[in-house]
Amino acid sequence: MRWLCSEYKRSAAFKGLNPSTKRARGRILDRFCEEHGDKPYSRLERTQLLKIRDKIAETPAAANELIKVVRQVFKFAMEYFDHDSNPARDINYLPSNNPEGFHAWTLDEVEQFEERHPIGTKARLAIGLMMYGGCARSSDVSQLGRQNLKEGGRLRYTQFKGRQRSPVKIDIPVIDELATILEASPVGEMTFLVTQFGHPFASSKAFGNWFKKRCVEAGLPHCSAHGVRKAAAARMAEIGLSDFEIMAIGGWKTLKEVQRYTRSARRRVMADSGMEKVETDIERTKVSNQRGGGK
Question: Across the beta sheet with 154-158, what order do the strands follow?
Answer without folding.
Answer: 149-150, 154-158, 169-173
